[in-house]
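My current task is to audit a protein record that another person submitted. My question to you is simply how this chain folds and whether the tokens agree. This is what I was given:
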Amino acid sequence: MENNGKKLRHHFVLVHGLCHGAWCWYKVATVLESAGHGVTALDLPGCGASAVRAEEVRSFEEYSRPLLRAVAAAPPGEKVVLVGHSFGGHNLALAMEAHPEKVAVAIFVSAPMPVAGRPMSAILEQHLQGDSAPHSFLDCTFGIVETGSEDPAETFLVGPEWMSQRMYQLSPPEDLTLARMLARPAQMFLRDEAMTGEKVLTEGRYGAVTRVFVVAEEDKTWPAEEQRRVAASCGPGVEVRAIGGVDHMPMFSKPEELAQVIMEVAEKYS
């Protein structure tokens, strides 16, 4: 890969979480690009600057399509480094299953890391129903939107107070303000076939890709101990790294440190 005649060391593909967009990576992307790396930060359908509305996205595969296309477009012999935040871990898993030969390593940043042979939705459902689930979603909103099909779209939108108390409590106030302005409703696709199928992720493809889990130590959305349990459930081959003093949004609370971890992982496994 070249940029103005200069060979780039790695190509990072950054995937956002629910209700967010490519904009949430602006600090990390700047650090990576300044170090000479290639960066693709994606807006998934219905998110960020996408012209699509959340309820218009018919399936999780359609929601993941920009990522699938980006990975498939990697030139022969080259591999990308995938980085997914929060719900974006599910998108990473689908891309790893589809194109394992094009992924050098996948980095899950406070993101569900599915287990091969189990539904991708299992971790999310366990979190939403388990003892560690939040007792209240505060001002988050859930919606039902009729789409003309048998199943209406179920949307979720993080609320300003939730973001302030649970997601961005250690992040700069200007980044919280930015997020409040740009957050959009999103779907979790909990009943989607790609999320519920036990044979969607296989050990021979998804499981063959090197995976690294980055724990956010002060995460109030998804406790650090639960993150570690999820990483451990994927087997001894998963490397776990941790960043202290960060909330659920380490790309804002400690962007330079997160970028450094990402670059170290890429250098180790590429």
